[in-house]
Amino acid sequence: MASDHVPAWAGPDGLPQLGDFQAAAERIAPRVFRTPLVRLPNVAGTQAGAPLVFAKAENLQRTGSFKVRGATNFLARLAPEVRARGVVTHSSGNHAQGVACAAADAGVDALIVIPHGAPEVKVARTLAWGARVERCTNDKAAREGTAAHWAAALGATIVPPYDHPWIVEGQGTVGLEVLADLPDVANLLVCVGGGGLLAGIAGALRAAGCDAQIVGVEPELAADARESFVRGEIVTWPAQDVVRTVADGVRTQALGTHTFAVIRRTVDAFVAVSDDEILDAAAWYLREAHMVVEPTGALTLAAYRRLHRGEGPVRLRPGPTALLVSGGNADGRVLADLAMRPAG
């Protein structure tokens, strides 16, 4: 079954309120890491007067990705008798690990639908948390349909990958941590697939009264959110298009209803970057910052480089910039290729 109740946010403007995110932070604190905000060296390739750029290192999160935050919050908010029946989700890998971890913590069964083509390191780590894995073709209908089938068969609850207020609130706890560590943040760049992370962070910062410039980042090969933002309505891209990008964590075909409602009112702009720029950024992290960052996690650095060159729909504001590093679950082949990639 799907989750029995999808609440609306209680604020007069229909947006999440600061208390929603603060409550989520308290709820998940015993189960997730408070990840560091790491200053990056010479991101722009200059020495004197280099701008202050920080990475919010969710690649150092408990499951190697921010996704465990939303999953933990979701399971914690389920009624005990509902949670005991187990959970089901669909994911290309990082949400899979997050749900598997949260379910293991809660002592309940988890079945995860993972599409063919997902990185095997993410499949293996999902299994290592004790979850059962079923595979499907990599398109939205197959993923959702397979998850619905197993939820009905098992009497379990579906944990949405992104489009649910409880997921958004959990992911938004990242924003609270950034604001606590860098209260004068001027620019915040966040990668976007289905929009749970971007909606959560942007919603949390706006609810806290922060007016930093918030920029969503996508691959050019999967830029449905940018198109949706410009057109003012949710646009769906074909599965055969979005699966082309190396950034496997954002191969979603469309934003969610809940996430788009927040994003369109809290985000300033979107930037789309090429796969070559993404891989250059991931290689830079490995070589210069000594950080393991999967291609999806490197999206924001690739976008920062564009904006620093004066390219893109907006200009960087004066002051510190924070780049959301969403995860670090790259397999050995990808890491080997990044290590050998020429500096770019």
Q: Mean pLDDT score, rounded?
A: 93
Query: Major sheet: size, sense and barrel closure?
Result: 6 strands, mixed
Spatial arrangement of strands, main beta sheet: 1-2-10-7-8-9
Task: Give me the strand/helix succession.
Answer: HEEHHEHEHEHEHEHEHHHEHHEH
Number of helices: 14
> What form results from the Cα inertia axes?
globular
Strand segment count: 10
Give me the CATH fold name of the largest domain.
Rossmann fold
Stretches with pLDDT under 50, minimum 5 residues: none
Helix content: 40-55%
Based on the structure given, which CATH architecture of the largest domain is correct? 3-Layer(aba) Sandwich
Radius of gyration: 19 Å
Strand content: 5-15%
Tell me the structural class.
alpha/beta
By CATH reckoning, the class of the largest domain would read Alpha Beta
Terminal residue distance: 48 Å
- Domain unit count: 2
Detail the topology: elements first, then pairings.
Elements: H1 18-28, E1 37-39, E2 53-57, H2 67-77, H3 80-83, E3 87-90, H4 94-106, E4 110-115, H5 120-128, E5 132-136, H6 140-154, E6 157-158, H7 165-181, E7 187-191, H8 196-207, E8 213-219, H9 224-231, H10 239-242, H11 257-266, E9 269-273, H12 275-289, H13 299-308, E10 321-325, H14 332-340
Parallel strand pairs: 2-10, 3-4, 3-6, 4-5, 7-8, 7-10, 8-9
Antiparallel strand pairs: 1-2
Helix pairs in contact: 1-2, 1-7, 2-4, 2-7, 4-5, 7-8, 8-11, 12-13, 12-14
Summarize it:
This protein is α/β, with parallel strands linked by helices. The protein has 14 helices and ten strands. The protein folds into two domains: 18-65 and 164-340, Rossmann fold, CATH 3.40.50.1100; 67-158, Rossmann fold.
